[in-house]
């Protein structure tokens, strides 16, 4: 309540995105909402509460602390899977609380079974298969051993899923590599079932794979960026637009809506004479007599310094360009062309004001950072409100 800036998350935009995604994946494919990275900066607690309210009942995170946050937030029972590392205390907690996790080597499996035995429970696992990304995953040569181990410990293992992750499904440049990964994954899935194992879910598609390689959807998709209203990259949007036929129900502009808006208020308004420098150093010299507004947000708020002298905000329904270097807690914007700006006026950093809009995509173009990175940089302590 004392913060100088806040974020709002738009629920109807989320419902719109869910509708679009469900239409694309069809009835039979399970939707798993990926909420790692503080729900891509949207705030994991408010986001999952809203998503659960919209009927989402499966969440994917990267670590146990995020799973813990979901458990703490939701009263209703949902499935949660940890896609990253679980060990020690977090492994004990996950198994005790029926939180699922990826198994990417036999050591994790052995440790999990030991804990499951001590708790007289089953661990709920997803076998993560190495198919060519070379990050985590069970090597093909270890598959037999892992499967035999799973079979021998059925009393303490529930094999919920078999999965992989594609490296580069967002761009055709990686087509050969992704195709090879798909082939490798399908072979591994076949081999696993040849041992008599029958996982509930086969899942490999992230947002980009789900759009560009719909054959990878199997019976579950793990969707991050698109549920928040962003295309994985421009190419994925263009490829989708090319397929849209005239009778498509949704046109691309309505397909996804961005959930997040980021606002603050004007802290101070002042005049600067022609020739004066604004802010630290000499990167910005007043081209004329100017009026500037000081905004109480800087790079410590995740507003990247790379937007110094490049970014824009909205004030009074107009674009106000950033002048000078973005400071830790403040920045200056040019409002010479905007009438009657007062201390306390609304400033939009991301989102709409009247007819104008500032998008994360425009940040990306100006700063050469990915939308994923810009979103997750927004600090946890800025209050988020669902509207
Ligand atoms: C982040 C992540 C996803 C979701 O990716 P998006 O591109 O945001 O849809 C899916 N699977 C794994 C393993 C991930 O790490």
From TrEMBL:
Residues at the catalytic site: 36, 280
Essential cofactor(s): pyridoxal 5'-phosphate
Pathway it works in: Amino-acid biosynthesis; D-alanine biosynthesis; D-alanine from L-alanine: step 1/1
InterPro entries on file: Ala_racemase (IPR000821), Ala_racemase/Decarboxylase_C (IPR009006), Ala_racemase_C (IPR011079), Ala_racemase_N (IPR001608), Ala_racemase_pyridoxalP-BS (IPR020622), PLP-binding_barrel (IPR029066)
Modified residues (N6-(pyridoxal phosphate)lysine): 36
SUPFAM superfamilies reported for this sequence: Alanine racemase C-terminal domain-like, PLP-binding barrel
Domain Alanine racemase C-terminal: 259-387
Catalytic reaction list: L-alanine = D-alanine
GO molecular function per UniProt: alanine racemase activity; pyridoxal phosphate binding
Cellular component, GO annotation: cytosol
Enzyme class: isomerase
A Gene Ontology biological process term: D-alanine biosynthetic process
Pfam family, one: Ala_racemase_N
EC number: 5.1.1.1
Assigned keywords, A-Z: Isomerase, Pyridoxal phosphate
Keyword Isomerase: yes
CDD domains in the cross-refs: PLPDE_III_AR
Superkingdom of the organism of origin: Bacteria
Chain sites annotated for binding substrate: 135, 328
Entry similarity comment: Belongs to the alanine racemase family.
PANTHER family: ALANINE RACEMASE (PTHR30511), ALANINE RACEMASE, CATABOLIC-RELATED (PTHR30511:SF0)
Chain's role: Catalyzes the interconversion of L-alanine and D-alanine. May also act on other amino acids.
Protein name per its UniProtKB record: Alanine racemase
Organism in which the protein naturally occurs: Chryseobacterium lacus
């Amino acid at each position: 309540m004392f913060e100088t800036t806040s974020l709002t998350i738009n629920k109807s935009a989320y419902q719109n995105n869910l509708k679009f995604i469900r239409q694309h994946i069809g009835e039979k494919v399970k939707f798993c909402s990926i909420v790692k990275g503080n729900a891509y900066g949207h705030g994991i607690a408010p986001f999952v509460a809203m998503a659960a309210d919209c009927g989402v009942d499966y969440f994917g995170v990267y670590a146990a602390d995020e799973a813990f946050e979901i458990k703490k937030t939701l009263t209703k029972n949902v499935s949660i899977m940890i896609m990253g590392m679980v060990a020690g205390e977090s492994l004990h907690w996950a198994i005790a609380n029926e939180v699922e996790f990826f198994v990417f080597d036999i050591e994790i499996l052995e440790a999990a079974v030991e804990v499951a035995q001590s708790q007289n429970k089953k661990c709920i696992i997803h076998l993560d298969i190495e198919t060519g990304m070379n990050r985590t995953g069970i090597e093909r040569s270890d598959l037999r051993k892992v499967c035999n181990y799973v079979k021998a410990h059925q009393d303490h293992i529930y094999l919920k899923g078999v999965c992989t992750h594609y490296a580069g499904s967002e761009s055709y440049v990686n087509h050969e590599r992704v195709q090879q990964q798909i082939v490798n994954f399908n072979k591994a899935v076949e081999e696993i079932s040849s041992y008599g194992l029958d996982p509930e879910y086969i899942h490999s598609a992230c947002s980009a794979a789900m759009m560009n390689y719909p054959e990878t959807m199997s019976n579950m998709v793990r969707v991050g960026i698109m549920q928040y209203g962003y295309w994985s990259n421009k190419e994925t949007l263009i490829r989708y637009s090319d397929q849209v036929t005239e009778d498509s129900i949704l046109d691309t502009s309505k397909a996804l809506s961005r959930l997040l808006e980021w606002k603050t208020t004007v802290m101070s308004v002042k005049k600067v004479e022609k020739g004066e420098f604004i802010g630290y150093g000499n990167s910005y010299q007043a081209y004329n007599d100017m009026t500037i507004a000081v905004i109480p947000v800087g790079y410590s708020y995740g507003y990247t310094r790379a937007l110094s002298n490049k970014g824009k905000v909205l004030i009074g329904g107009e674009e106000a360009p950033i002048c000078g270097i973005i400071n830790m807690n403040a920045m200056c914007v040019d409002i010479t062309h905007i009438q009657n700006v007062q201390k306390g006026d609304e400033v939009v950093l991301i989102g709409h004001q009247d007819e104008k809009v500032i998008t994360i995509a425009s940040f990306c173009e100006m700063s050469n950072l990915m939308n994923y990175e810009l979103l997750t940089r927004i600090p946890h302590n800025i209050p988020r409100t669902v509207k």
